[in-house]
Amino acid sequence: MTKYQNILVAVDPQQDDQPALRRAVYLNQRLGGRITAFLPIYDFSYEMTTLLSPDERTTMRKGVVSQRTEWIREQAQSYLDAGVHIEIKVIWHNRPYEAIIQEVLNGRYDLVLKMAHQHDRLQAVVFTPTDWHLLRKCPCPVWMVKDQPWPEGGRAVVAVNLASEEPHHDPLNTKLVKETLELADLVNHTEVHLVGAYPITPINIAIELPDFDPSVYNDAIRGQHLLAMKALRQKFSIDEKFTHVDKGLPEEVIPNLAEHLDAGVVVLGTIGRTGISAAFLGNTAEQVIDHLRCDLLAIKPDGFTSPIELDDDEDD
């Protein structure tokens, strides 16, 4: 069964152009399935006023929801005219990320697309608090779409963790590569590259141990990473020229390689935890994300459970 048959687009309420919807239609035309354009809205002033009765407040809410529904329909009109089926859903909710995740749980979506804004001077992608909440807590993959065209011949770069002894990393590496290869083959026969970073010698070790040879240490660490990468690529019959094992911090190595390869998207795993135990896929992944200049596809490990629960008394 083809993945990403049920796509949720988180509509950006601040602008008329919707890159995430554009990317969703692009995927839909190649994969089939259905698209829902989703917008949670809230106006605190309507809740605060004492001049309105509860019924009047409800009427005003419905009026705002109706206006925004029509506005999204206008944004999507060219796609609708072309025969793309897009369901439009606008709800009243004061925490966008919770509303989006609850909709994912309710509708059993298998992909969320959301626009990521770009810092003009730095070219870097700027993530909002809602973006970070989704990346950490959304149970299905989250695709953050940069507001510029996909590069010509853009590649997919999969960030893998080759060093960890934690049991969840190997199956997550396998899942990231497998899903990226499947998607790349279905969408555009996109070239897929794997990248892993290995650490440089800690200076304090070299200082404290006079007989310590940094070059031997570096060679041993690099060798371990190359062996792990070889095992991973051979599992999927990936040519060695599409794999990269570079020295340095992941948050430098991965964005630099993505830029060098003119990547369209970087795929990485996020486990939603914080603290030291999160290792590469928690804190470091977030640092990698912060340095990217292209699309990002964040995938959770199997068995991940979102901390957000369904709202029993959701407003219409």
SSE arrangement:
Layout: E1 6-10, H1 19-31, E2 34-41, H2 44-48, H3 54-81, E3 86-92, H4 96-107, E4 111-118, E5 125-126, H5 129-137, E6 142-146, E7 155-159, H6 169-187, E8 192-198, H7 203-208, H8 214-235, E9 243-247, H9 250-260, E10 263-269, H10 283-290, E11 295-299
Parallel strand pairs: 1-2, 1-4, 2-3, 4-6, 7-8, 7-10, 8-9, 10-11
Antiparallel strand pairs: 4-5, 6-11
User: Secondary-structure element sequence?
Assistant: EHEHHEHEEHEEHEHHEHEHE
Compute the average pLDDT: 86
Give the tally of β-strands.
Answer: 11
Radius of gyration: 22 Å
Structural account:
InterPro entries: UspA. It is found in: Cytoplasm. With 316 residues, the chain is an alpha/beta fold. It has 2 domains: 1-147, 3-Layer(aba) Sandwich (Rossmann fold), CATH 3.40.50; 150-315, Rossmann fold. It contains 10 helices and 11 strands. It has helices at 19-31, 44-48, 54-81, 96-107, 129-137, 169-187, 203-208, 214-235, 250-260, 283-290; strands at 6-10, 34-41, 86-92, 111-118, 125-126, 142-146, 155-159, 192-198, 243-247, 263-269, 295-299. Strands 1, 2, 3, 4, 5, 6, 7, 8, 9, 10 and 11 form an 11-stranded mixed sheet that branches. Strand 1 (6-10), helix 1 (19-31) and strand 2 (34-41) form a beta-alpha-beta unit. The model is unreliable at 274-281 (pLDDT under 50).
